[in-house]
Structure formats: structure tokens, C-alpha cells
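INFO worker-7 received task bundle
INFO bundle size: 2
INFO processing item 0
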Amino acid sequence: MRIAVASDHRGFPAKSQVSVFLTSGGHEVKDFGCLSLDSCDYPDHGIEAAEHVASGDSEHGILFCGTGIGMSIAANKVTGIRAALCHDELTAELARRHNGANVLCLPADLLGTELMKRVVDVWLNTAFEGGRHERRIAKITAYESNGRAGG
């Protein structure tokens, strides 16, 4: 699976460790930065990675910042992205199963590396359930296209 990753400076160590985990699991990782602990702005890297997912060049994205909130906000500005901030395995599972999240946002300051790996594993291995959830995602997609969610 092709996975776009990105972080700000606070998420850089976590992104590096999770990227190793992903590649050791056979995934192809494309890193959109940042590439050091030097201070940077999360939208610069998060939006670029989200655009890569929205275009279909990557199947999924995983973004890291201190709280995960900034990356989530930035990624969700990209049309076609459903970014979910997850703190545990259950929220990761539900983000995929019910919301078809295509970008996972992780709070690097709040979760340890082992928990992040478990969250990523659950998120990547959970399928979208479809059914009634498709209708809800269609409303989001309609709003992105014409500014109206319909009903």
C-alpha cells in the first residue's frame, strides 16, 4: 500500500518511527516532511501529503503533529480528504469502518510509539463498512462540490 506521511517538528520523531514500522510491513512510504526537529508549520507538509492522497497517488495518509488537531484541520481543507484524529484503536477502527477516513492524524505528544503503531495497524486493516455510511459520505462529497449537503 502507498502511504503519504507528513509531520511538523513535534511530530517528526513519531513519523520517523512509524515510517519504519510501515516499511517493515511492506508498505511504500512517501515522506512529505518535515525532515528535522527544526520548527516548521504543519499546514505546509500536511496539505501536501493530503493532496497526494486526494489525487490517488497515495492510498492513505498519516499525519503527525503535537496534538494531531492542526494536521487534522489542515488536511480536511483538501477536497476529498476525510482526516480523522485518533487516540486509540477503537477510534481508528471506527474512523475507517464508519467514516471511510483516508487520512489518519496522530497526536505525537500524547501517544507513545507502541500505541501509535497499534492504532496505525488497526486503521490500515479495517475496511469501510459502506451501507448507511455511504449516504453520509455522499453528503460530505456533495457539499465539497457545490456547497450544499443535501438531505
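INFO item 0 finished
INFO processing item 1
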Amino acid sequence: MGRVRVHQHVNPLAPYFRFTPNPIEIEKIFANPEMPILLDIGCARGRFLLQMADLDKTQNYIGIEIREALVNEGNRLAQEANLTNLHYEFSNAMVNLDKSIANFPKGLLQTVTIQFPDPWFKKKHAKRRMVNRQLVETVVEHLAENGRIFVQTDIEFLAEEMFELFRENEDLQEIEVSENPFPVKTEREKAVEDKDLPVYRRIFEYQKSKGQRSKVK
């Protein structure tokens, strides 16, 4: 079966995508629901998660994606590979991430990745960008102590915009990174590096007990 064809970009503010998703029920989708979770927001075709779930069976992996056809394709591939630690969810993270992960058990969300989200270059479309204050607040609210958020993009202005939104939260420690900390790269990351173009990356670590922001170089 060939790759599912979908539009490269969809408007997350369109009425069709402003639905209210059902909360993800961890105990219903994973063979071992007590393992730590890696959540990939805007996972696209989800090949990063597919490979990660196969390499590391000590974590559960969830991909959230706004294009339903890619979610269905991802879940089919996960089932065919018998990956009981991988699940894809159809949801509009920009609008409803809080509802999708509302029932996550406390302390299980160890890692969040946001990789190469749509930049929406035009000024009038900036409101469509996935990472906003509401999304940041939701991620931090559910993240386990010492949990990490990995953000990367090849668009410099978008990188600074996203990094600044995370910097606003005083419970996050910013860590500069030059390399992807995971053993798997996304398709977009490979394409950018093949062209010898820069990728802008940061890790933000949740340390609520410190109550202050610091920057590690």
C-alpha cells in the first residue's frame, strides 16, 4: 500500500478542525499503561514515533496529528508492526491539546517533542501557528517533574517565537542543544540536513521546585 496523500497544510482554525476530542484513555490504548510517555505534537506521518517505539519498548509513544488520514495510516502501521506501545490520535493540538491529554495520569508524561511545525509565513496567518501560550501552559501542566520538551525547526523566526513562549514559563530551564538527542530523525530533519541547512533546537526541562528560569549553555 502506498503512502496516503494529504494536503501539506490545513487551517487549524477552520470549523471542521475545531471539534472537541475525547480525552485519550491511556489504559485502553497501551499494553502497559504504566510506562512513561513520549508525546509528539504535530507528528505528521509519525515515522519518528514508529521507529522510536520499535527501538525502545520501555516507553509508550503518542502522536497527535490534525490530519486524520495520517493518524489512521499511523495506527495501521503500528498494528502491523505489533507495536503495543504506540498510538496516534486525531486532534487539533493548537486548539484542544488540553482536552486530548486531560486524563493523562500524573507523572507519566516524561517527554514532549515539537518538531518542524508549519511556519505559516504570512503575517495574517500567524494565528494558525501551533505553538501558542495555551499549548505551552497545557504541556507544562501535565509534564512530570524533570520532564523535557524538545523543540526544533529550520525556520529561524519561528524558532525564536516558540522558544520565547516557553521561556515565559518560570518553571522551565532552557538548555541549548546543537544535535538531536534522539536516535531517530524526522523526515523533515533529514531533508534539511541533507541540504546542509541549519536546524534550531532547544530543550526545556520542567523543574517546578526551583521556581526560577535559568539558561544553560
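INFO item 1 finished
INFO post-check item 1: Confidence is low (pLDDT under 50) at residues 211-217.
INFO post-check item 1: The beta strands are 37-41, 60-65, 86-90, 109-115, 148-153, 172-176, 200-206, 215-216.
INFO worker-7 idle
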